[in-house]
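Hey Z.,

So I finally got round to the heme C thing we talked about over coffee. Here's the setup:
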Amino acid sequence: MKRLITLFILGLTAAAHAAPDGALLYARNCAACHGADGRGGVGVPLALPDFLATASDDYLRRTIRLGRPGRVMPAFPHLSDAEVEAIVRHIRGFAPGVKPRALPAAPVRGDPERGAALYRRHCAACHGPNGEGGKGTGVTFSRPRDLPIIAPALNNPGFLAAASDAQIKATLMWGRKGTPMPSFLEQGLTERDIDDVVAFVRGFERQPRQRRSELKDEPPVLIRESASDFATTVENVKQAAVGQNFRLIRVQRLEDGLFPPGEVSRSETIVYFCNFRFLYEALAVDPRVGLFLPCRVTVVEREGKVLVMAINPTRLAALFNNEELDEMCERMRGIYEAILEEGTL
Ligand code: HEC
Ligand code: HEC
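And the result:
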């Protein structure tokens, strides 16, 4: 009896330490986007032999850990190493006969300037002029005339940190059968051309970081002093917003509710406005923009000065790590500047 109990306890301990279940973890964390069988969906296919032949285990591990910031692919920092490993084994199981090629570890040497010209000619149409990737992600079901699989972002910090030069090179040399990504040896490029393109793609690594630190130097608020009195300035701001194709939503005097009527000690008015087309466009890029919408401009009078202020959208962009949104924030900043300019004349 005692021996039986010992065996039972040993059995329990073994179960507790059993390797994590890759199929289950994949089903929970990945299948919704990449498909139960790895054939793709919102995420790109993972089961294709050409993909699994060039993607190293390290690439898969890093991609799971880092995700693709600003794209749909999430990061999974909370999984244990053993869990990540189990998922990698499960993905390998999609094509059991396919072993990843042994690729050289050395960086590829090429001429990025020559690569830039080749990139413009051969890659930009699908991957975007700055490697930002195609609009949307994964496999398209709804738009039959578009590519069946959306080209991933190549300027993405998650991709660049996960992929070795040799892997990018191998992808260009051989392409991925079953996807729109062609073999560029078959397209007539030489190996030297391909090295130059790899050097150019690697150069994307430096651009987004520089840009993010520039964004952090931006002032948080845009402020202008008005040449007119308070009431005229509020009217001017309203007209300027309408002139920029916005619809006024409401005009709120901040003292409302804060001070008893008639005992207002200072003037402060917020003009709220919105452009619904822009709003939907921005929300589609990143739902977090909802945090600072609708648009608003504040007019205050303090010590005889009338000031007009708006949040600086470019500074907000630094919070989001999404390059498509950077462009929108840049556009929005231009619009705010125009409204402040007109409103303070
Ligand atoms: C919310 C959807 C979503 C989920 C969940 C998701 N992915 Fe992805 N994944 C994507 C998209 C979309 C891409 C393509 C990135 C792009 O378009 O830039 C991608 C890319 C990848 C890539 C790179 C493929 C390539 O061709 O290089 C790998 C590997 C990957 N995902 C693995 C996983 C694994 C493993 C999980 C689960 C742990 C997972 N993904 C969960 C959407 C998702
Ligand atoms: C006709 C459109 C098209 C062209 C042209 C094209 N690609 Fe692709 N590329 C794709 C698609 C789609 C994928 C995703 C394939 C998949 O799902 O496995 C891809 C995948 C890739 C990948 C792997 C990305 C990842 O996340 O694993 C790299 C690297 C790449 N392409 C680089 C290039 C470069 C560099 C060029 C030009 C020399 C180029 N591509 C030209 C459509 C294209």
